[in-house]
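Weekly modeling sync, notes
Attendees: S.R. (lead), two postdocs, one rotation student

Agenda item 3: backlog of single-chain predictions. S.R. asked that every request posted to the team notebook include the full sequence so nobody has to chase files. The rotation student volunteered to paste the first one in as an example of the format we agreed on. Action items at the bottom.

Example entry:
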Amino acid sequence: MTENRPISHYLLLLVLAGVWGCSFLFLKIIAPTVPPFTIAAIRITIGAIVIALYVLYKREKLPTHKSIWLKGSVIGLIGTGTPFVLISWAMLYINSGTGAICMSVIPLMVFVMAHFVHHDEKMSWYGLIGILFGISGVVVLFYDSISISDEGNMGTYALIAMMAASFGYAFANILIKRFVKTDPINTSFVMLTTSAIAIWPVAFMTEQPLSIEYGTTEILSLVYLGVLPTGIATMVLVIFTRIAGSTFVSYNTYLIPIVGVIVGYIFLDEALKQTTILSIIFIALGIFISQRPRLKSRKP
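Predicted structure, as returned to the notebook:
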């Protein structure tokens, strides 16, 4: 049975996929001039400010409970700070479209971890087949990187960094569901704030962010990364999930790599290779197959 959804749901889905898919384009543009810790620290700080302004605008209080700050700090470093640094570094050596494709394996990683952590999310045969398809897509990416990388082994190391970042996102998802019961927006604020506090000292010690020459392109890119994919999109995701449901919202995972590959092709003249398309197909099929039992169970 087809769901009777308003057109606004589909538009929001496209907006989220577009915002996150385009983030790899901006990361690729500024990666040669702005080092990774600095990129991560700036975008996370801007994102935290955006969420704080939203909370204050709603005349609500920022989180003060010790528990949320403790849990949020750990989850923030695992699921925000570390992945942002890894992704920013990886963009030096791989295409923006490839980076977007790597992020699409997150639902598959969540699916595997949930099997061992949550008693109500055990893996089925559909899930196992889906995982195998997803792994095939990742293997295609690594094979392509090893075969044609102009950076020697750095392209492969960058893909490993992207997989590690994806794992961090997925693991944080599991930790949030299991240990965090507070308002998601407050949790997001804590995660971003504590990550920024942890990353800024490293950035100053290793990269001297104040000595970097920030041109218009770098400034606009960092503002985009902080305001949209880090700040606003996080809040839209929370609100949208409550309205439309997590299953429908998860469909943006199919769209993000497509957006990333297309904008990379249009704006950065990145090659649209057959192996790229093949990896997207394998990973998208893996997500669809692994989620199929859940989709069937939700039909009225």
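Discussion: group reviewed the output briefly. Residues 7-100+153-270 form one domain.
Action items: rotation student to repeat for the remaining queue; S.R. to check formatting next week.
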